[in-house]
From TrEMBL:
InterPro entries: Bact_HTH_transcr_reg, Chorismate_lyase_/UTRA_dom_sf, CP_lyase_PhnF, Tscrpt_reg_HTH_GntR, UTRA, WH-like_DNA-bd_sf, WH_DNA-bd_sf. This is Phosphonate metabolism transcriptional regulator PhnF. Residues 6-73 form the HTH gntR-type domain. Pfam families: GntR, UTRA. GO terms for molecular function: DNA binding; DNA-binding transcription factor activity. PROSITE patterns: HTH_GNTR. Keywords: DNA-binding, Transcription, Transcription regulation. Gene3D superfamilies: Chorismate lyase-like, Winged helix-like DNA-binding domain superfamily/Winged helix DNA-binding domain.
Amino acid sequence: MSDTALPIYMQLAHQIGSEIRALYRPGELLPSEGTLTKRFGVNRHTLRRAIAELVQNGLLESRKGVGSYVLDTGIEYPLQPSTRFTSTLMELGHSTDTRVLELAEDRAEGGVARALRLGEGAPVFRLETLRSVDERPFCLITHFMPAACCPYLATEYRGGSLHGWLKEQHGLALRRVSSVISSIMPRGNDARLLGIGSRQPVLRVKSLNVSAADATPVEYALTRFRGDRVQLSVDF
């Protein structure tokens, strides 16, 4: 607690907040009031003001007679030209897993056809994946890709980094050119697969990814993020 321009309880809140981000996982219980007051050399009133500040900032939840629990503040996920979901999260220190829910040949219609610059009824692959981060559901993605650009997708892709597979198997490096973000209610089986309530909104991101070499549209993706697990960061 070195910033003497701040009240002691605010200095304490900053210090405890830093430790929460570095050392605690969501759902873990902070040490007791007695332990914390002794450790930081403050009285209970100062500690309680610091805890109240952290509750107001969304880092903690206090339960009477139990203590203070660490909340899941969400993963800051950057929306940027680079489109590598798996490598981006691994660089942030998270484990990831991709589960293929469905992979089928479909026909391009409406917004999908327009985004991919295809004629109505042109063959596309529709791939449904569930992405988990740190062993918990994170997002669902519906990928649409022209069948002509990745003819072996249906027979050879089995999970993992889709964009890594496209680059390795087809020499396709992708670049994001647009993303549209909105909040919607979960539809179909989305709530069950994401492990949320049917009335808990999700963040939907419609993205268009093109070939980095010649800007040909390669993937139109509809991503539904758990709203309580993500903070989308957009840099300009």
